[in-house]
Structure formats: structure tokens, C-alpha cells
């Protein structure tokens, strides 16, 4: 007994050899929208501001009297001319400000010191609640 096979069903109205094109534009739009969403929703860095007040009077000698001078050098920190590490500096300044709350701390970066190094010192002093800090130059 032989069974007659019918030919495979085909779409009658579709011309042979022509393919529908899939547009990639909506897919690319969706990918860019998702990319923008995640870029705006993510926080890559912890942005914090360090407040710096401008000097009240330029060239005032009274402001330097009784202040502690911290020099930020490429090789390390110096407090009153002596080398000191940052944790020791913070602890020492904290002890000094506990006894004298009006103590003023002057930060002077040396020439060639990166701004990030100076900001690191200012940030550590800020986290240690040492408030009366001024950033000074070398007078040139």
C-alpha cells in the first residue's frame, strides 16, 4: 500500500527568495536608553566637597600668630619643621585642638606636590573634626 505524500505547505502569497529585513534601530535605541539609565543611576565615585573660605584680609600677620604650620611635601609631611606621618599628625592636631579650640592650622603645599596629596591631608583633618584649617601658599 502506498501513501501519497502531499507537498510541504507553503505560504501561497509570499514570493520566493525575498526575505523580510529586521530593523536594528529600535534595538539600538533600547540599548542606549538602558546604558544611559545605568550610567545616570550609578555612582562611580564618592563626591564630597571640602569647604574652603577665602582669607578675610590678605597679608594679615595676626592670622599666623599661634598657628600650627603643616607643610605638605613630596617626601612627606612636616609639622613645625619636623617630619611626621599623617595619622600622627591628625592625632597631634586633635590633641592640640582639644586644649585650644581656636587653634589655627595652616596647610602649605610645597612646589611640585600634587593637588590630590594636599586634598588628602585636608580630608583627613576634616574627618578628624579639625575645623580651623587654612590653605596658604608660599607667598610668591
UniProtKB/TrEMBL annotation:
The keyword Cell wall biogenesis/degradation does not apply. GO terms for cellular component: plasma membrane. It is a single-pass membrane protein; Single-pass type II membrane protein. One of its GO terms (biological process) is protein transport. The chain crosses the membrane at residues 21-45. Belongs to the ExbD/TolR family. This is Outer membrane transport energization protein ExbD. It comes from Spiribacter vilamensis.
Amino acid at each position: 500500500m502506498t501513501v501519497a505524500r502531499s507537498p510541504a505547505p507553503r505560504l501561497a502569497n509570499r514570493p520566493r527568495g525575498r526575505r523580510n529585513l529586521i530593523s536594528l534601530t529600535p534595538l539600538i535605541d533600547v540599548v542606549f536608553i538602558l546604558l544611559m539609565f545605568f550610567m545616570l543611576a550609578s555612582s562611580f565615585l564618592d563626591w564630597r566637597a571640602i569647604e574652603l573660605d577665602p582669607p578675610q584680609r590678605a597679608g594679615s600677620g595676626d592670622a599666623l600668630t599661634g598657628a600650627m604650620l603643616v607643610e605638605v611635601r613630596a617626601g612627606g609631611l612636616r609639622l613645625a619643621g619636623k617630619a611626621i606621618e599623617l595619622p600622627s599628625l591628625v592625632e597631634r592636631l586633635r590633641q592640640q585642638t582639644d586644649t585650644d579650640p581656636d587653634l589655627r592650622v595652616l596647610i602649605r603645599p610645597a612646589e611640585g606636590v600634587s593637588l590630590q596629596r594636599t586634598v588628602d591631608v585636608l580630608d583627613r583633618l576634616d574627618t578628624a573634626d579639625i575645623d580651623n584649617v587654612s590653605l596658604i601658599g608660599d607667598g610668591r
